[in-house]
């Protein structure tokens, strides 16, 4: 399955800044008819409306509020592409005093939030011909960094769910993409203390290129590409291979 965003309707969570904002702008540059800017506070999307006019429609989605996700899916019934970009990060090692609380916080947004978005919007995508679901995971999905152990665990879980969605949603013609950025120049990247970062636009460009080329994994920046090259054989021969469920022990 390949997907061209031209004349399509896109929804991006966390669209008011960072990677989400870059994805919204890239979608419009590539000819999207409309982009729902899904944010916790719709007022935060006002600058996007000022810049792009009625092609940007603010809509409330808070990954901590399941009702907001359901309500958004009942409003944005014309969506062809859902990009689940919003996420959270805590700095916590596995033995930190607040490690369990940090993991619970991250799992709620990064994993349960993804599942809620997928459950709410899968029927919408199906009704509109299949479309695409894009999940922002991370290089931390496949490599744990000790100072961010709980975040890495949540991203490993979201990557696992994304793999399951790829198989499940294939039946309804929905293309699923798993995006694995490295350090990116965002507020989250600054808070994490990343020194050498890539542009959010590099992630946005890589996403739409992957949609057009029907690729599942996206490694958009130099750090991600290095990890992706090492991971490629496993990805192709295990993750993306069509294997029978009964082979799983």
UniProtKB/TrEMBL annotation:
Pfam families: adh_short. Keywords: Oxidoreductase. It is an enzyme of class 1 (oxidoreductase). InterPro entries: NAD(P)-bd_dom_sf, Sc_DH/Rdtase_CS, SDR_fam. Signal peptide: none annotated. Its EC number is 1.-.-.-. GO terms for molecular function: oxidoreductase activity. It comes from the Bacteria. Belongs to the short-chain dehydrogenases/reductases (SDR) family. PANTHER family: NADPH-DEPENDENT 1-ACYLDIHYDROXYACETONE PHOSPHATE REDUCTASE. This is Putative oxidoreductase. It comes from Rosistilla carotiformis.
């Amino acid at each position: 399955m390949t997907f061209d965003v031209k004349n399509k309707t896109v929804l991006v969570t966390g669209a008011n800044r960072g990677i989400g904002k870059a994805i919204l702008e890239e979608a419009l540059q590539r000819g999207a008819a409309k982009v729902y800017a899904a944010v916790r506070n719709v007022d935060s999307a006002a600058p996007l409306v000022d810049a792009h006019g009625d092609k940007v429609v603010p809509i409330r989605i808070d990954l901590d509020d399941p009702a907001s996700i359901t309500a958004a899916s009942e409003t944005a019934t014309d969506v062809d592409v859902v990009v689940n970009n919003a996420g959270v990060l805590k700095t916590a090692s596995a033995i930190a005093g607040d490690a369990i609380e940090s993991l619970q916080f991250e799992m709620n947004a990064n994993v349960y939030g993804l599942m809620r978005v997928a459950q709410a919007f899968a029927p919408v995508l199906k009704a509109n011909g299949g479309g695409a679901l894009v999940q922002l995971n991370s290089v931390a999905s496949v490599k744990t960094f000790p100072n961010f152990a709980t975040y890495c665990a949540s991203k490993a879980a979201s990557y696992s769910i994304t793999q399951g969605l790829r198989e499940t949603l294939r039946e309804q013609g929905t293309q699923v993409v798993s995006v694995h950025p490295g350090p990116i120049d965002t507020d989250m990247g600054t808070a994490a203390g990343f020194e050498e970062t890539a542009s959010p636009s590099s992630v946005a460009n890589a996403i739409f290129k992957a949609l057009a080329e029907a690729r599942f994994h996206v490694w958009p920046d130099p750090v991600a590409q290095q990890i992706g090259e090492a991971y490629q054989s496993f990805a192709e021969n295990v993750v993306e291979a069509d294997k029978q469920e009964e082979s799983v022990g």
